[in-house]
Amino acid sequence: MAVLEMENKTLELDADGFLANIDDWNEDVAKVFAKEEGIEELTEQHWTVINFMRDVFKEKGDAPSIRRLTKESGVNTKELYALFPKGPAKKAARIAGIPKPKGCI
Predict the structure, then answer these.
(1) Most buried residue, 32, 38, 42, 82, by CB count within 10 Å?
(2) For residue range 90-102, what is the model confidence (pLDDT) as tens digits?
(3) In 1-105, which ranges are continuous DSSP H helix?
(4) Domain boundaries in the chain?
(5) In whole angstroms, what is the distance from residue 104 CA to residue 89 CA?
């Protein structure tokens, strides 16, 4: 199993590079994942999407669809793809510390 080395702890990752344990997530983990995904700085809009995804996951046990993200998070489709280029649902889920969405390859 892969790991993410942080300052004073090692976090386990699943085969797809997502956190194995959602409770290991914090904002520092999000920032590390964002940089790995090519996002240098997480803006307020990034955090809106990240927090929305975490809330939906906690409520439903699964990541929201792109459609739900754009309908309910306050971030439209064009903005979502600008914030998380080339696979917004997968990238946002990873940064949010939740499992890969079921529809993602």
Answers:
(1) 42
(2) 999 999 999 988 7
(3) 27-36, 44-60, 66-72, 77-83, 88-96
(4) 3-96
(5) 8
For the record, the structure tokens of 95 come out as 């940064």
pLDDT tens for 60-100 read 999 998 899 999 999 999 999 999 999 899 999 999 999 98
Task: Assess contact for 98 and 54: CB atoms under 8 A.
Answer: yes
One-letter amino acid at 2 equals: A
Which residues, including other chains, have CB under 8 Å from residue 52's CB and lie 6 or more apart? 64, 69, 72, 73
- Measured between alpha carbons, how far is 30 from 92 in angstroms, rounded to an integer? 9
At the fourth CATH level, the homologous superfamily of domain 3-96 is: DsrC protein, C-terminal domain (1.10.10.370)
Q: Just list the catalytic residues.
A: 104
* HSE toward the beta carbon, residue 54, CA cutoff 13 A: 18
Global pTM value: 0.91
Angle at the Cα of 40 (from 56 to 101), degrees rounded to 5? 30
Please name which of 33, 63, 32, 29 lies closest in space to residue 49, comparing C-alpha atoms: 63
